[in-house]
Amino acid sequence: xNAIAKAIDSLNEVLGRVIAPLIAVITLVVLYDxxxxxxxxxxxxxxxxxxxxxxxxxxxxxxAYGLRHHAHVEVxxxxxxxxxxxxxxxxxxxxxxxxxxxxxxxLTLGWSFFMRSYSRGETTYGMVSIPVYPIKGVIVVAAFLxxxxxxxxxxxxxxxxxxxxxx
Length: 167
Description:
This protein is mainly alpha-helical. It has helices spanning 2-19, 23-40, 47-61, 63-68, 84-120, 133-166.
């Protein structure tokens, strides 16, 4: 089970390290749009839509990386006062009670959003008409990656319980 958790960690680590620097691309597009407004008095037709989509995709895809590095919001003031065994139990229960339904909802609704967008050929409004379905597909990919990372966390919590029991 430890190998599974390590493989999931490695996957999200590699993806996070590849995706994180892409914020620079978003920044360049924003700078282009700002420069165009400054020098021509008119924004580009596509830059605003692209930056919204890229930032949304970047944010969603970095969520699993954030979860892997414990950069998520967690109320652990009281949890830190508990023993390692109780922390592991709270972590397992928390993921089963709250996280599993959330990921299930994100996967099922994200998939239906993606399929509806793809089947209708949904695009942004305006002259450029950028396809929207790839970004809605990112919802499903991000939910899958977050779900995998949650599995790794639960595996570690189970291992912690086993170690506590053996000790």
